[in-house]
Design a protein that fits this description.
alpha/beta; Rossmann fold; 9 helices
Length: 251
């Protein structure tokens, strides 16, 4: 089984076809893994009206300004919040109401902040609305998150097709909340079967780990556990390292 490795570009877009696959959890955990490598990281929440990263990272009570304020002339740095316990990770919250993100201005913003951070991670809403994806730089690395169930995997493939249709060719797959029982029970013959169903090259597999959920409920990003080890492997692959994928039983 081949795991795709490439040199990291500093702008990433986290996508999913189906909601509820843990896309935003993946975004925060990749940011934390990058910070552990010494990166200065900006997370951008793009789920206007339904923002969640401020709650997941424990800063919701501190948020005064958000992305809509930046589009209305506020300096970016005034709407960026450092994350507790993760020195070097910052969050730009989504607008509290829908309609606050302007397409072309958004594209300009991404290019601006990419100069100020080692890594920019844009957490997009689930679905196949390509409006904002079109504004991302051509060098953006798209990461599509799927659960291990057939519906999520099919929807990830739909996202891949739509990204390719607008010329966004750099797309990689993270299988989140993976459990070996999907293979043991015969739902899939193996991990390769999941990859083939999605038609996206694999960058990593994250095990189903309750530690992530429990930390999230406390407004924290997990620092240890099986899933954290998986994210540490993923960020190294994104940095260009050849990190083997563990056997499915041991993920």
């Amino acid at each position: 089984m081949e795991v795709q490795v490439y040199i990291m570009n500093n702008v990433f877009a986290i996508t999913s076809g189906k909601g509820g696959v843990g896309k935003s959890t993946v975004a925060t955990c990749i940011a934390a893994a990058a910070q552990r490598l010494g990166k200065r990281v900006l997370l951008i929440d793009l789920d206007e009206g339904l923002r969640c990263l401020d709650v997941m990272t424990g800063i919701s009570e501190s948020v005064v300004l958000d992305l809509a304020d930046v589009f209305n002339g506020e300096a970016v740095e005034n709407a960026v919040y450092p994350l507790p316990e993760h020195n070097g990770v910052y969050l730009l919250p989504a607008p509290a109401l829908r309609g606050g993100i302007e397409d072309e201005v958004f594209g300009e913003l991404i290019r601006q902040v990419a100069k100020d951070y080692d890594m920019v991670i844009a957490d997009f809403p689930a679905g196949i609305d390509m409006r904002l994806y079109k504004q991302m730089p051509d060098t953006t690395r798209f990461i599509t998150v799927t659960g291990p169930d057939p519906v999520s995997i099919r929807d990830a493939g739909v996202v891949a097709d739509n990204l390719e249709a607008i010329g966004k060719m750099y797309n990689r797959l993270i299988i989140n909340r993976f459990d070996y029982s999907y293979i043991k029970s015969g739902v899939y013959k193996g991990v390769d079967d999941i990859i083939d169903s999605s038609r996206i090259q694999l960058i990593g597999i994250v095990p189903n780990d309750i530690t992530l959920t429990l930390n999230q409920a406390k407004g924290k990003i997990a620092k240890r556990g099986r899933a954290v080890k998986a994210f540490n492997r993923i960020i190294k692959r994104l940095e260009g390292e050849d990190v083997p994928l563990p056997k499915a039983k041991r993920i």
